[in-house]
Design brief:
- The complex is a heterotrimer of chains A (about 290), B (about 150) and C (about 375).
- Chain A is built from five helices and 15 strands.
- Chain A is of the alpha/beta class.
- Chain A has a seven-stranded mixed β-sheet, sandwiched between helices. Chain A has a six-stranded antiparallel β-sheet with strand order 4-3-6-1-2-5. A two-stranded antiparallel ribbon of chain A has the order 13-14.
- The two termini of chain A are about 35 Å apart.
- Chain B has about 150 residues and is α+β, with helices and mostly antiparallel strands.
- Chain B contains four helices and eight strands; from the N terminus they run ααββββββββαα.
- In chain B, the strands form two sheets. Chain B has a four-stranded antiparallel β-sheet with strand order 1-8-3-6. Chain B has a four-stranded antiparallel β-sheet with strand order 2-7-4-5, with no helix packed on it.
- In chain B, a hairpin with a 3-residue loop joins β4 and β5.
- In chain B, α1 packs across α2.
- The radius of gyration of chain B is 16 Å and the shape is globular.
- With about 375 residues, chain C is α+β, with helices and mostly antiparallel strands.
- Chain C folds into two domains: about 230 residues, no CATH class; about 120 residues, no CATH class.
- The relative contact order of chain C is 0.16.
- Classes of the chains: A alpha/beta (about 290), B alpha+beta (about 150), C alpha+beta (about 375).
- Chains in contact: A-B, A-C.
- Chains A and C meet through loops of A and β6, β7, β13, β14 and β15 of C.
Chain lengths: ~290, ~150, ~375
């Protein structure tokens, strides 16, 4: 199935896993006023970077700090990789000021991946909200690259306003080139928007996927995922076939600092992608 | 084979479990309607004497806001119910509805049904039960929309 | 390994010397700041000879003994984790280099440390931390470098403390494994000696240059009697039957609100706990912005920032943070690492400024509440161990 993954931790036993590799910024593209995408490549041009869809890296900005960001590019491209992130703090803010030719530290890839194997031979329903589309973009690339292995593929994507829609051109291209159904909705329409207005979860009920043979993948704000799971279950999907990407504070990404604990799970190594039946007992519980 | 109105109504999930006599009655108050893209279905303030089941297309529920123009609050599409102002006095639309795509719908004579519900409370209960469910779903969705979940963190 | 030898009190210094001669830094208990702490020892005279500790919820006092026991106390605020997993460690430095930067790793120093006076509960704590730092997909090379070199001289407790409950946790009072040498201190009339148990070849080798003789059956029995007596003196107890399931099922038990009203979230418990391992990573620069460093520092799940993600903290209330700590220590730790995270050393009870007692909290959640603040002397209500 999936691309061979040389887990960078295992491949470098003996080396300190807290030391980043240095990568060079190929491009920094501003997607919206608070979201940007950086493309990174190795410094010397040889070697590559492989990852599985759903995994993340720890990105270090010299002298500022390090943050976990999902990898958002095509996993088949090993020469460069991308991260799309919102500006939410000091590190992401200074990252957003960098340019082509600047450097960043990278540790990773870490974490579990989207169940592209489990979904073979079945319908795939992908529900994302806001920046949640970024960690699912690699999965979409993967599904498109192996289109014949899947039945119906549906993407439901909720954005804040039409200006906040990410990867517009790509979505259009996928919709026209591949048998991929895409429905985009916004929370707030603006003048000239002729599309759906309303939360993305309302589109799950009537989405044309076969509930008896589908795998669901969702990523977005936790509240959105909570309601999405309710809608998936209402459609008859089992908790074994629903996958979510969870997020918590992270400092080390290798299971030592303890910050990312979510019940008994460490989001850095047992997640971020979880099969829902594993986290069901604590999902939605206050302050866990 | 062209489906009869009665057939369409009896198969619609909204009317699931409704007694056959009521299905006939409701179907008797229904008609197929068709709108072009950009057509106004009803305006704010108009008499609310109908409600619609969208069978195909996309409809914007909108409000006219001075210097912002017609603003879409939510869209409804295939399988959704549009309009419940016909149930309560003063029976006037509080919002407008305009199609964003060519739309087909089932239109129900709300005024007629209102009278029938007053006469037959069992019918009234059945319809209100179902409309309450629709309204609650819409309310929950609206609450989520209000949360502005994708907005900048607090 | 069960060979037993007798080491005279006077030969303790010889043991120190033998370790120093082999290049070990000798670390052990000593009196400082009104407590028995672990620090570098130059001689056996620096041991807390003739001192003991009196502990209870939120209370720690040193008291003079009426004998000259070298190890006549229980445990102090320090644990061995401060040497294996130091409170602050620099991981690497970096300097700007044109548009980029270069990283210089801080290779962990290969120090040889000898730990003197390690308690049974502490041996278990070290094994538990080994699982955290060495047992997962990633290896903590700093911990590994420090851990690899150590010499462990365990000392079996001659008495149990008022906040101790190692018997309940199956972690003591007798040291079973994980040591190079284990001593039991015996004071009988004029006699003062140690019954020494070999743990490893290294232990045997270090002891080889020191006058010793095989222990007699009576002496070994005397040591065993001390271990047995200590086991009955535990000041606290904890019923660990189904404790993981109990805590998982009771995330909304009213007791959490009750303990939260007392808890100051001061994080003392996590600092003194020998198994707590949470850390934070600090990326800092100098004023010029040309040099950066990454440090790893102890952290605590009791801080508000611990669970911060964009916009706010997931665990904002004291209730959720206390619940997180206790549920992790006694429950989720089992799912994560295959054993409890608690070794029954009682430090969290002693060093809590308001005397919150983890054994009491478990009892309350099970449904058997005793009045809050009632210091449990342990003589009554000794629950069956698992």
């Amino acid at each position: 199935m999936a691309p061979q993954l040389e887990n960078s931790i295992a491949a470098r036993t003996g080396a300190d896993p807290m030391v980043p590799e240095i990568y060079c910024i190929q491009r920094l593209r501003h997607e919206t006023d608070d979201t940007f995408t950086i493309e990174l490549a190795t410094v010397n041009g040889n070697g590559g970077f492989s990852f599985l869809p759903g995994q993340f890296n720890m990105i270090y900005v010299f002298g500022v700090g390090e943050v976990p960001i999902s990898i958002s590019s095509d996993p088949q491209n090993v020469k460069t990789f991308e991260h799309t992130t919102r500006i939410v703090g000091a590190v992401t803010r200074s990252m957003g000021h960098l340019k082509k030719g600047d450097f960043l530290g990278v540790r990773g890839p870490y974490g579990t991946h989207w169940p592209v194997e489990q979904a073979e031979g079945r319908d795939v329903i992908i529900v994302t909200g806001g920046i949640g589309l970024a960690p699912l973009r690699p999965a979409l690339y993967y599904l498109m690259a192996h289109r014949e292995k899947y039945h119906k593929i549906v993407l439901l994507y909720g954005a804040r306003t039409p200006e906040d829609i990410l990867y517009r051109r790509e979505l259009e291209r996928w919709r026209s080139k591949f048998d991929l159904e895409i429905q985009v909705t916004v929370d707030r329409g603006t003048r000239g928007w002729r599309g759906n207005v309303g939360v993305v979860t309302t589109m799950i009920g009537r989405s044309p996927f076969d509930s008896t043979n589908a795998v669901a993948m969702a990523c977005g704000p936790e509240v959105m995922m909570r309601f999405a799971v309710m809608e998936f279950q209402r459609r008859g999907l089992s908790t074994q076939d629903i996958f979510l990407s969870m997020e918590r504070n992270m400092k080390c990404a290798i299971g030592f600092c303890g910050h990312c604990q979510y019940g008994p799970a460490f989001i850095c190594k047992d997640g971020p992608v979880f099969r829902f039946n594993r986290i069901e007992p604590i999902f939605g519980k206050a302050e866990i | 084979m062209i489906q009869t109105l009665e057939g369409i109504v009896s198969e619609h999930p909204f009317f699931k479990g409704l007694e056959e006599q009521y299905i006939k009655l409701v179907a008797g108050c229904a008609k197929n309607v068709r709108f072009d893209e950009g057509q106004i279905i009803f305006r704010e303030g108009d008499a609310a004497d109908q409600f619609y089941f969208i069978r195909e297309g996309l409809v914007a529920v909108e409000l006219m806001i001075p210097h912002r123009g017609f603003t879409t609050l939510q869209t409804v599409g295939e399988g959704d119910v549009l309009g419940w102002s016909w149930l309560m006095p003063p029976y006037r639309w509080r919002f407008g509805a305009r199609t964003l795509q060519p739309t087909r719908a089932l239109a129900f004579d709300g005024k007629c049904l209102r009278t029938k519900c007053d006469e037959d409370h069992d019918l009234g209960y059945e319809l209100l039960k179902r409309f309450t469910f629709v309204v609650t779903e819409r309310l929950e969705a609206t609450r989520l929309q209000l949360l502005d979940l994708y907005g900048a963190p607090a | 390994m069960s060979d037993h030898f007798v080491l005279g009190r006077d030969h303790l210094q010889g043991l120190f010397d033998a370790l120093k001669a082999r290049g070990y830094q000798v670390l052990g208990p000593t009196l400082r700041d009104g407590a028995i702490v672990y620090d570098e020892l130059n001689s056996a005279d620096e041991l807390p000879v003739g001192w003991t500790d009196e502990q209870n919820g939120g209370t720690y006092r040193l008291k003079k003994r009426n004998d000259r026991a070298c190890f006549g106390y229980v445990v102090g605020p320090h644990s061995w984790k401060r040497f294996l997993y130091p409170p602050a460690v620099r991981l690497w430095q970096a300097t700007r280099n044109g548009k980029g930067f270069q990283i210089l790793e801080d290779k962990p120093a290969k120090k040889k440390m000898a730990f003197i006076g390690v308690r049974a509960c502490e041996l278990h704590a070290m094994a538990i931390q080994d699982k955290v730092f060495l047992g997962g997909p990633a290896l903590d090379c700093h911990y590994q470098a420090r851990r690899d070199g150590i010499f462990v001289l365990a000392v079996n407790c001659g008495q149990a403390g008022n906040t101790c409950f190692c018997s309940s946790m199956g972690t003591g009072p007798k040291a079973d494994s994980g040591f190079d040498l284990a001593l039991t201190e015996i004071l009988e009339g004029d006699e003062h000696y140690f019954v020494a148990e070999m743990g490893t070849e290294l232990g045997r080798e270090v002891l080889s240059g020191i006058p010793q003789k095989a222990a007699s059956a009576a002496q070994v029995e005397r040591a065993k009697a001390i271990h047995a007596a200590t086991a009955t003196q535990m000041g606290r107890s904890m019923d660990t039957t189904g404790i993981k399931e109990l805590l998982y099922a009771n995330s909304e038990h009213p007791r959490w609100e009750e303990v939260a009203a007392r808890c100051l979230t001061c994080a003392n418990c996590t600092m003194v706990c020998p198994t707590c391992f949470c850390s934070t990573v600090e990326d800092v620069t100098d004023l010029t912005g040309e040099h950066a460093e990454r440090w790893r520092k102890w952290d605590s799940c009791f801080t508000t920032d611990f669970s911060y993600i964009h916009g706010g903290s997931v665990r904002a209330t004291a209730k959720s943070r206390y619940r997180q700590w206790m549920t992790h220590k006694l429950g989720t730790w089992i799912d994560q690492f295959g054993s409890s995270g608690c070794v029954g050393c009682g430090r969290c009870i002693t060093w809590c400024p308001v005397g919150i007692d983890i054994t009491e909290e478990v009892r309350a959640i099970r449904g058997g509440v005793s009045p809050v603040g009632a210091g449990n002397s342990g003589k009554e209500r000794h629950d069956t161990n698992t």
